[in-house]
Each structure stands twice: as C-alpha cells, then as structure tokens.
Design goal:
This protein is of the alpha/beta class and about 240 residues long. The chain is built from 9 helices and 9 strands. The longest helix is centred in the first third of the chain and has 14 residues, at about 1-15.
Length: about 240
C-alpha cells in the first residue's frame, strides 16, 4: 500500500516539480513518508519546488507540541527532505479566530493554484480529514468537534484519552473535492466497514468518505484486511487495472 502510494506521489513530483500536495497524518501514511524519504535520499527526489497543505490540526496544540500534527509532519517527513519551510502549510491550531484561519487557509490553497494530489486516510467512522459524520457536508476549512470514536481511536498517541483535544480545524469537503487527484489509503480490519461505506454505500454526510464516489480522479489503495467487506468482484480486479 505504502509503496504504491509513494510511487504515485513521486511520479506526481517528477511530472510536475512544483506540485501542490495535500497531506495526511496518522498511522496510515507513515510508511509512505518513510518510502518517499528513502527515494529522496537514494535517487534525489526533489521537493525544493513542492508545496504542501496538511488536512488538519488539533485546536489548542502549538506547533512545538509533540502531539500536534505540525510536529508529526516535521518529525516523520519534512525534516528528512529538501522542502522549503515557506512552502509548508498546516492549519494553525492556536489561531484565535478559527473561522478566519479556515478562510485564510482555503484562500492560500487557491493562491498556490489548488491541490494537485491529495493523500487521505480514513477514520473508522468514515471521516476524511476531520470531517466527522454529520447531517450535512461542511464545505470549507472549519472548526470540528471530534467524535467520541475519533477521540478514542486517536488516544493511542496520547498518554490518556482525556489529553486528546476535543476540537480540530480541518479542510472541508469542498476543499478536498477540489483537489485534482485524490489517493485514499487504508489498512487493517478496523477500517473495512468504513471502506465499504466509502466505496459501496450511499453518498451521505453520515459517511463523509462516500463523497469521493463523485470525484473524477480517485485512487483507493487497500490492504486485504481493509478490503475484506468489499464485494469480491471489486477486490479481484487485477491491480494493474485498478491503478
Ligand atoms: C489525519 C486525518 C485523518 C486520518 C484518519 C485515519 O490527518 O485527517 O482523517 O487519516 O483518522 O487515521 P490513522 O491513519 O491513524 O488510522
């Protein structure tokens, strides 16, 4: 999964050295970042003209907080490659006015020409970014109250569940859907129900990832466990045809 994803990202950068990438945090893309770092170190994949926008950040955590997504990205990716610090964008979880920060973030993405390739993970509740199941889709970058399920799932990165922030700032569904290409990654049995909803379920804000069915260019990369609930006819398509 990670090797295929890294190949797509590397290909994007070779074809368009000044690509704008949308990036995700969490466990799922870790190995993809590791692979991209290896490609950078071994054959010189050049990030010097790349711009990145991360999907989300916890509200209340500053960039130097080890639990923040700023810190995560720096530790797991940015400090190992030759990206320019001024080309890295992550929503500011300490912004006093989160609404204004969201508008500013979407404007900034537009001003850089829009996202060429957006990498996504998926929550067990089928969230993308931190767009939690809801009765409507939130379009733009906005403040989110995290679901109890998300707080519980993410507590593995904190010393206890009470330390997990209750709010986050996340790209909205429209922000994500405006990306020219989307690659969603999922692994593990605990993602299989969400993956089923994303691919085979109705398009509904109650399963935010289902909106990707309406995107013109989505690649979904799964391991066997995450694909376990999908109909056999989807899973058995040869990988070369899917890619
Ligand atoms: C992370 C993000 C989330 C995660 C999702 C899966 O920036 O936006 O949607 O992709 O919660 O997280 P992991 O990969 O830790 O299972």
């Amino acid at each position: 999964m990670s090797a295929e994803a890294a190949k797509i990202v590397a290909g994007q950068i070779y074809l368009k050295p000044d690509s704008v990438l949308g990036l995700a945090t969490g466990s799922t893309p870790l190995k993809m970042y590791e692979t991209l770092v290896a490609v950078h170190e071994t054959i010189g994949l050049d990030f010097s003209r790349v711009t990145t926008f991360n999907l989300d950040e916890y509200i209340g955590l500053s960039a130097d907080n080890p639990q923040s997504y700023h810190y995560f990205m720096h530790e797991n990716f940015f400090r190992h490659i030759n990206i320019k610090p001024e080309n890295i964008f992550i929503p500011d979880g300490t912004a006093e006015n989160v609404g204004a920060e969201g508008l500013k973030y979407d404007r900034l993405i537009r001003s850089k020409g829009g996202i060429d390739l957006q990498i996504l993970g998926i929550g067990q509740n089928a969230h993308i970014g931190f767009n939690e199941p809801d009765i409507k889709f939130e379009a733009t970058t906005h403040k989110v109250k995290l679901d109890d399920e998300t707080i519980k799932a993410n507590s593995r990165f904190f010393s206890n569940v009470d330390e997990v922030p209750k709010y986050a700032i996340s790209m909205g569904i429209k922000t994500i859907m405006l990306a020219r290409r989307v690659v969603l990654l999922a692994n593990g049995k605990n993602k299989s129900a969400a993956v089923y909803k994303a691919i085979c379920g109705s398009v509904t804000p109650e399963a935010p990832a289902s909106i990707l069915q309406l995107h013109q260019d989505v690649t979904i990369i799964l391991d066997r466990q995450a694909a376990a609930d999908l109909p056999k006819k989807i899973v058995d398509v040869p990988i070369t045809e899917i890619l």
